[in-house]
Amino acid sequence: MTIGSGMLLLLLLPCCGSARAHNGDFTVRPTCKPGFSEEDYTALVSQNIMEGQKLLKVKFSACPGKNGIRYETNNLDFKVRTDGTIYAAHQVQIPLKQTMFMVTAWDHQTLERWETMVRLLVGEKSQHNGHKPQKGKKNSSTDLAPQPSDTLIPWRQPQNSNGLRRQKRDWVIPPINVPENSRGPFPQQLVRIRSDKDSEIHIRYSITGVGADQPPMEVFSIDPVSGRMYVTRPMDREERASYHLRAHAVDMNGNKVENPIDLYIYVIDMNDNRPEFINQVYNGSVDEGSKPGTYVMTVTANDADDSTTANGMVRYRIVTQTPQSPSQNMFTINSETGDIVTVAAGLDREKVQQYTVIVQATDMEGNLNYGLSNTATAIITVTDVNDNPPEFTASTYSGEVPENRVEVVVANLTVMDRDQPHSPNWNAVYRIISGDPSGHFTIRTDPVTNEGMVTVVKAVDYEMNRAFMLTVMVSNQAPLASGIQMSFQSTAGVTISVTDINEAPYFPTNHKLIRLEEGVSPGTALTTFSAVDPDRFMQQAVRYSKLSDPANWLNINATNGQITTAAVLDRESVYIKNNVYEATFLAADNGVPPATGTGSLQIYLIDINDNAPELLPKEAQICEKPNLNVINITAADADIDPNVGPFVFELPSVPSAVRKNWTITRLNGDYAQLSLRIMYLEAGVYDVPIVVTDSGNPPLYNTSIIKVKVCPCDENGDCTTIGAVAAAGLGTGAIIAILICIIILLTMVLLFVVWMKRREKERHTKQLLIDPEDDVRDNILKYDEEGGGEEDQDYDLSQLQQPETMDHVLNKAPGVRRVDERPIGAEPQYPIRPVIPHPGDIGDFINEGLRAADNDPTAPPYDSLLVFDYEGSGSTAGSVSSLNSSSSGDQDYDYLNDWGPRFKKLADMYGGGEED
């Protein structure tokens, strides 16, 4: 086979089965033997290999069921992935021209192992025919165009002594190099492939792979007869750097004549891409005063060309610097890394705050004649450091402050600082060095103006200090930079004058406390409560007055402040709290304007025995018989110990009946018991005087009257109801009179009831016939006529009968009806009353109507009983007073038995039955 320019080709042999032609037919051997497709692999690489760079791929044919194949190498510089790809474990430099190592495949289940050899060859750079391309132009395609080479006859490996021979690849073809951006003409021949069997049979050649029959399609083509391979269009290395094709040789019948060979086509890089900066503008900073060699920032440019060649090797340089102060070369840049550093001293933010640097990146290793260039802008900000101490704008300051005033700004201190405003390097901090040992002043910093505000934090007294001489120092919030010393102008003096003001007089012993006995007479001098005027340098008088005297017990001398009593001081008064009486007084000077001060005087009153004891309770109740209950008595005294108990309880000798009927027993110092002395005392209310004496010196006594109610008691010792009435103050005669009145009243009630019953019986003995035609429907007519009775009047009593019809009423003409007649026309619908039998007697009729009306809550007013104005006797209608309503009936007088023995007779007389 004849080939052109050199590249190493790899022949991959199948492992699973083999095929052999017999008269144009193929017989397939079904056996399967696992192993590498090649005994050794060769690849063309550069001398410097980057970490992770792929080198080649070995192919291992595993029989079905063998899926756990793993790879390893005997060279630590290279590793194999699970798909057979060999890559560099780290950056490797291949010595001399080649390196070799072994790749092992092993089955982790059966531990069976297979090995193959890998050889890496270092490829040579293409020659440029002894001349360099012109600046700014790309290399001509004819410069690197491959020329057709001689035919390479495949060589065979000699046989071993044992009769076996090692199977090697049939063809060894060097790589094919194709320059990018070739100008043609196209198609352009790359290489010619020829088999040494073409003299015997006609052979057809073809290529497969990416760039031939796979996208991108038809980049490469081959003449099937001559084996000449062509490139059909310009190549772009940045689009694709290499192609892997496979060449095939078959006879006219399509039978394989030679094993396929691998063709590796490398696109030779041309300098057709400019370096591109990642950013067009870079921002960096550096402290002012930095030493030469201080790192500032890094700029980076990328070149799409091959970085292993000069086409992609970028170099940097600084083109311009603005401003060029204090030197035109303040910075330098590392040509390979793009690091910008300072190269000269003198960076001063107060002079130059920012530099603009134009940086140029050039490929071809920075060769300006042949390389392509691009530029970017680096903005370098000079950051501030505290290299300027603050300085006072004046050496002395002055101020004035009124005495007794706080939080007053008395002076403003101004400073100058050339560092960056509102930064820790500029913010001023003030400190008082001397002149204020008591800490009356502090200096606060104004955050806007940076001024120092001298402020009073502790009130000053004119009488103590009339002026202050302060020494203050100013510094920055941040410490000064190394090598910078404080300026002598960072210290200044402040003179502060104190002005005198009229101060209020004050009581030296405020809340003054004195002790005395209560009951002192009015006009008694108690104490002198005087005030002091702090204004020693002013001739002023102080006058006194009362501000608060709740009980109006005190007076104060307006000139000297002497306190006297205006009334008797009573410890038991409501104005006393915890034996202390408090009054407030006012002291005022005659200054302009006048000033006042207040003071409190507390008087502790010592108790004297000026209150007699009292007894509690004032009223009590006891049974008329002794030994059932007693009355507990308590003594109370408004005084305090020792003018209170123990108390002495006794009964007076006058009147004599007191000691005769009562006796008192002392339980302890505060309590006693009052009880009956005699066996029986008539019920009533008794005033029992008791004399109680305290233990004061001298002792006081008091006679208290206790109203005692004596009443009859039951077996439990409680007063009965009758006894309570008796004990209320009514005698036996009064009770009997009340009972007689009650009996008379009950008798009258009973007689009235008997009379009513007799009238009812008379009404039932008479019959009244009524003509139904003259019935007026429950209406009793009212007549204004009087006579001697029904027997001398010509009355038609048939009108009182119940009517059968209302036709004669409905036929009456309008305007002639009486006011007591039932209205005619539409009426509200009320519940229908129950139908009752037709009564023959008007009394029964009225009773039934009355009962129906009582049980009907919706009955209108005209359904009520009417009053009759005629009088007489012998009427068949009977007496209207004998009618009974639903609430009337016989009275049961048996409840009188519960009223006691005095009402038992009435119950027997009227509750036993009714008389005939």
Describe this structure in words.
- The chain has 916 residues and is mainly β.
- It has six helices and 53 strands.
- The chain has a four-stranded mixed sheet, with no helix packed on it. A four-stranded mixed sheet has the order 14-20-19-16, with no helix packed on it. It has a four-stranded mixed sheet with strand order 22-29-28-25, with no helix packed on it.
- A hairpin with a 5-residue loop joins strand 26 and strand 27.
- The longest helix has 34 residues.
- The termini are far apart.
- The relative contact order is 0.05.
- The N terminus is likely disordered.
Annotation keywords:
916 residues; four-stranded mixed sheet; 6 helices; 33% strand; mainly beta; disordered N terminus
Compile the SSE list and pairings.
Elements: E1 18-22, E2 25-29, E3 35-36, E4 40-45, E5 48-49, E6 54-57, E7 60-61, E8 69-73, E9 78-80, E10 85-88, E11 92-93, E12 98-107, E13 113-122, E14 176-179, E15 188-192, E16 203-209, E17 220-222, E18 228-231, E19 242-251, E20 256-268, E21 276-277, E22 281-287, E23 295-298, E24 301-302, E25 315-322, E26 331-333, E27 339-342, E28 354-362, E29 373-383, E30 391-392, E31 396-402, E32 409-413, E33 415-416, E34 428-434, E35 441-445, E36 452-456, E37 467-476, E38 491-499, E39 512-517, E40 525-528, E41 542-548, E42 554-556, E43 562-565, E44 580-589, E45 596-606, E46 614-616, E47 619-623, E48 631-636, E49 648-650, H1 656-661, E50 662-666, E51 671-676, E52 684-693, E53 701-711, H2 721-727, H3 732-765, H4 807-810, H5 842-855, H6 904-910
